[in-house]
Amino acid sequence: MNYLSNGIIELIIDSKGAELQSIRRVASPDEYLWQGDDTYWDRRAPILFPIVGKVWNNTFIVDGKEYAMSQHGFVRDMSFEKIIDEDRHMAFCYRSDDDSRKLWPFDFELRIDYTLLRNVITVGWKVTNLSNKTMPFQIGAHPGFLYRHYNADDELHGFLSFDADSPLVSTEIVPGGFAGSSTFDVEIPADGLLPLTNETFACDTIVDATNRVHRITLHDKNGKPMVTVRHTMPIIALWSPCNGRAPFMCIEPWHGRCDDEGFRGEFSQRPDIENVEAGQTWETSYDIIIE
After folding, report:
1. Alpha helices, DSSP H only, in the chain?
2. Domain range holding 70?
3. Which distant-in-sequence residues (6+ apart) come within 8 Å of 190 by Cβ?
């Protein structure tokens, strides 16, 4: 494990998947990040690449050839090399090899940076295309944040607030984890706080692809802000397993989403695809703010 601290926030990062394992304030014992449990979800904050969500029949097509791919891609299970270990800044790199090319027919490098500034964790992503052709891809974050003072018997677990007006507009997620043809509204109450209850995620996942939600704050049961995710990505997903009857929820900024139900086109024709030209680097970042 790798430890990073600025005297205010301390992180633990696993080289496997360059995945966050812990977020704490130095002066407090409280953990902010879900710690993983097979009862609900065994991961903590995986990086989703080169797909977000699922591809139809767990396969995708590039240049007419079919490849197998499990949900959210394979990079989250790969070993990253630590390339920077400085005060307040740590970076990891994964580079494609013969084994990865059997899963994903491109040469690439994925770099993940973690930078601490006061109470803000900046997570940076750099995707470099080492192939001789354009590389389509998707990438997303999936951090799970613990509810404060969670009690399974309580109906209310906390609240969310947003930098967008009501309602959220969610893509329908049909059985199997694919995008349906319809959307539904999630109304935000007049006070701006969306209650998180045992029924909030009966829809499975709230996926707003309107590109207007760029700041989401998780509040405790009393309305006190705990964690904010700030980003510039076009899609935000909100999820908690067991219809929301879990001790945590995920705030997930995405570049990309699951396949439409029944989609069998080329990978480059999937909805919400990013592209990086041969020899070029695509990059973005998002912030986790400990309130």
Report:
1. 98-103
2. 2-290
3. none
Helix and strand element counts for the chain (H, E): 1, 24
Distance CA(98)–CA(106), nearest Å, equals 10
DSSP conformational letter for 71: T
Using CA atoms, how far residue 199 sits from 33, 163, 203, 208, in Å, is 22, 23, 8, 18
φ and ψ at residue 54, rounded to 5 degrees: -115, 150
b/e string for 178-196 if b means 16 or more Cβ within 10 A? bbeeeeeebebeeeebbeb
**CA atoms of 256 and 171, how far apart (whole Å):** 13
Q: Write the CATH number for 44.
A: 2.70.98.10
Ramachandran bin of 99, using left for φ above 0, alpha for ψ from -120 to 50, beta for the remaining angles: alpha
Number of domains forming the structure of the chain: 1
pLDDT in tens, 183-232: 999 999 999 999 999 999 988 899 999 999 999 999 999 999 999 999 99
The answer to whether the pTM exceeds 0.85 is: yes
